[in-house]
Design a protein that fits this description.
There is one protein chain. The chain folds into 2 domains: 1-49, no CATH class; 54-178, no CATH class. The chain is built from 7 helices and 4 strands, in the order ββββααααααα. The protein is elongated. β1 (17-18) and β2 form a beta hairpin. By secondary structure, it is mainly alpha-helical. It has helices spanning 41-52, 56-80, 85-106, 113-128, 131-139, 146-152, 161-175, and strands spanning 17-18, 25-26, 32-33, 38-39. It binds zinc ion (2 copies). The site of one zinc ion has 8 residues, from loops.
């Protein structure tokens, strides 16, 4: 004979579900879907505040980590792109992926819309205004304007639609990791 359970939040509702975090009985009216199983409203709220709580310091550390990896990966992408469209797209995806991991690791695996925007911007900079390319132009005595770097990286030309696509793919790869 199984014991009838009632929802912790709705004492009149019978249920067989419980929160994966705290074990309280929950019902379909109040349960929140979690990565594995369901959570009660209290634990779901706690998770939400955790993922959205990213301190300004974390944004800076995450941003710098992402930019460091992005600068290297973006430069490799820039050097390998002439070897073919497939290589260009694959390396761009890898760059975006690595940037997202670097940021995620340095901020303690937090996610959220704001850090998603940060990851997107960093990926964009790494690929279309790569600091190494900018620096190499500086050493030749040319002040690198935005358009001159774009030209240098051969993104702004009719045959370089693949490169634009690669930038989109890299940004997508970096941003998707931080979806809530
Ligand atoms: Zn709970
Ligand atoms: Zn309930």
């Amino acid at each position: 004979m199984s014991k009838v359970k009632y929802c912790h939040f709705h004492p009149e509702t019978e249920t067989g579900l419980s929160c994966v975090t705290c074990g309280k009985n929950i019902c379909p009216k109040c349960m929140a879907e979690a990565a594995v199983g369901f959570k009660c409203p209290e634990c779901a709220q706690a998770l939400k505040s955790h993922i959205e709580q990213i301190s300004p310091k974390s944004y800076i550390i995450g941003g710098l980590s992402g930019l460091l990896i992005g600068t290297g990966a973006g430069y490799i992408w820039h050097k390998l792109s002439p070897y073919g469209a497939l290589i260009s797209l694959a390396v761009a995806y890898a760059a975006g992926f690595l940037i997202s991991r670097a940021i995620s690791y340095s901020i303690g695996n937090k996610i959220g819309v704001k850090i998603q925007i940060v990851a997107g911007i960093i990926t964009f900079i790494s690929l279309i205004y790569n600091p190494i390319v900018v620096f190499s132009l500086l050493t030749t005595g040319i002040f690198p304007s935005f358009s001159s770097v774009l030209a240098m990286m051969s993104i702004w030309c009719t045959s370089c639609i693949i490169k634009l696509l690669a930038v989109v793919i890299a940004t997508w790869a970096a941003v998707r990791h931080f979806r809530i």
